[in-house]
Specification:
522 residues; mainly beta; Methylamine Dehydrogenase, Chain H; 2 domains
């Protein structure tokens, strides 16, 4: 493997040409060869080590061949495009898809609404209807001219459209493709066989759409690859050897180092090789903690060759994606479904994560914390009292289902999240702002109901931050992030359980019944 890395480093070095002075202008620059500084790939890889905490994890890496499938690079393929291809936009899951405003906003208008059909099929977990569920973030993509031409040649488009597309998967077991500007269909509706709750991903380099099934209707749950040039499912995978007998894939997969990384609710994390319309399974990490294989509903956050996930037993794992082996383990007390967020601060990666109130009983604490991402040590921990509630025989957990939102601009030292208090405070739900430095609570914004949706950000031309979110009663909120002042709120739908995607001064998000809304911030 060392020989491979060395050869790749030499190749990267030779890829950069020498720059020679032109003979004109500053004489000090004439006839001087300069070479771009290239950091060898092996120096970008984080250590292949395991801390003592990783001994709590019983694991097995299952390989389909004898090769070492190390990441080919550490670049974030999602960072340089205006589009949003995966949950919270990139490998860090830090929601860097913030909208842009040219003034201080004070209202929110509905630009268009798209209603999905409602599915009347009764699964063993009930009738799921239509619309979108948790996490349900849509994809936003601004296709290049050559991509549009390829789709036209393939005959998969319904007609001319702006080139800006919204893609989402519904609880009614179909995927939908809409024009971002008009809300009209751009392609035929596509059956994806089973109920979808999570957020699909679009491959940043191929015309592949990745969708994970959430609830079985007629067939075993699996993960899907949709070839958009054929507008059909061309690959399905269901793992019969998984250590946990629940085959859902609510996690939103991500491409790292040219491989597709996809956690499952079956106690496994998968590394695939990709090609147009197809995936090839290379390696599978199966793990148990305290004798049980937990399920992963969160989406994996990645920096360089380390990936971080949390699961429904409260485990937070750091994994070396080169070897698929655990690096460290941290137990965060309870079921944890929201996605871990990574941010680089002073050159070092840190994680923001939170738990629910489930296994603690009818009352307990949401443990919101900041970790050193390299070794799993705690920087700070904030305990937020929360409760579970009984909704007509169905118990709803408290705590945090949403994914934290890191502030920028005038809120660069703040982190925000929607928390289900369920009357442990004065309200059922709150938008909470905390300090990234010490975890202290800066303010709480009362919501009308509990909230699973993840908040998103907009910034005005003076770099002031505003937060848009919805709650479980169908209210939307536009809030001044620095102060917590609510600038606009009103009831629109039944339940905004899904998370929005944003571009420009607009956000698109689905409701729990059947409405998909485009909101414009003004």
């Amino acid at each position: 493997m060392r020989a491979f890395v060395t050869l790749l480093s030499v190749f990267l070095l030779l890829s950069f040409s020498c720059k020679r002075g032109s003979g004109e202008g500053d004489a000090n620059n004439q006839n001087i060869d300069t070479l771009e500084k290239v950091i060898p790939l092996e120096q970008l890889f984080l250590p292949d080590t395991a801390y003592a905490s990783a001994q709590k994890v019983v694991y097995f890496v299952e390989k389909t061949d004898t090769l070492a499938h190390f990441l080919k690079d550490v670049e974030d393929r999602y960072a340089s495009d205006f589009s949003t291809f995966t949950f919270r936009r990139n490998m860090l899951r830090d929601a860097s898809f913030a909208g842009k405003l040219d003034h201080r906003p004070d209202t929110v208008e509905i630009a268009w609404t798209f209603n999905t059909p409602e599915d009347g099929f009764n699964t063993r977990m009930g009738n799921w209807g239509g619309g979108t569920g948790w996490t349900g973030q849509p994809i936003y993509v601004h296709w290049k001219a050559e991509d549009l031409e390829a789709f036209k040649q393939a005959g998969v488009l319904l007609g001319d459209f702006s080139g800006e597309e919204v893609i989402f998967a519904s609880l009614n077991s179909h995927a939908y493709f809409l024009d971002w500007n008009t809300g009209k269909r751009t392609r035929k509706d596509l059956s994806v066989l089973n109920t979808i709750k999570g957020s699909p991903s679009l491959d940043p380099e191929l015309k592949n759409l990745y969708i994970g099934q959430g609830v079985s209707r007629n067939t075993p749950m699996c993960l899907l690859c949709v070839d958009l040039l054929k507008h059909q499912i061309t690959y399905k995978y269901s793992d019969s050897k998984a250590w946990r007998n629940w085959g859902a894939f609510d996690s939103s997969p991500v491409v790292a180092g040219s491989y597709l990384i996809w956690p499952g609710e079956n106690g496994s994390i998968y590394k695939f090789e990709r090609e147009q319309g197809n995936l090839k399974l290379l390696e599978t990490l199966r793990y148990k903690v305290n004798g049980a294989a937990p399920g992963i509903e969160s989406s994996i956050a990645i920096w360089r060759n380390y990936g971080w996930v949390q699961d429904n037993a409260g485990n937070i794992l750091c994994i070396n994606l080169n070897t698929m082996k655990p690096v460290w383990h941290y137990w965060n007390h309870d079921d944890s479904d929201g996605t871990v967020v990574c941010r680089i601060e002073d050159g070092k990666p840190y994680l923001y994560a939170a738990s629910e109130v489930d296994r603690q009983g009818m009352s307990g604490s949401c443990f919101f914390l900041k970790l050193n991402a390299l070794d799993g040590t705690v920087v700070w921990e904030q305990k937020i009292p929360c409760r579970r509630i009984d909704l007509g025989g169905k118990i709803l957990d408290g705590g945090m289902y949403s994914t934290p939102l890191l502030g920028q601009g005038d809120c660069k030292d703040m982190v925000f999240a929607n928390v289900c208090r369920n009357k442990a405070a004065k309200t059922n739900g709150e938008l909470m702002a905390l300090s990234t430095k010490d975890g202290s609570i800066i303010y709480n914004v009362p919501l009308h109901q509990f909230c699973w949706s993840s908040p998103v950000a907009f910034y005005d031309n003076e770099n002031r931050m505003y937060i848009f979110t919805g709650d479980g009663e169908g209210y939307i909120y536009l809030t001044e992030a620095k102060t917590g002042k609510v600038l606009h709120t009103r009831k629109v739908a039944y339940n905004f359980e899904s998370s929005p995607t944003v571009y420009g001064n607009a956000a698109v998000v689905g409701s729990r019944v059947n409405g998909i809304y485009k909101f414009v911030i003004k």
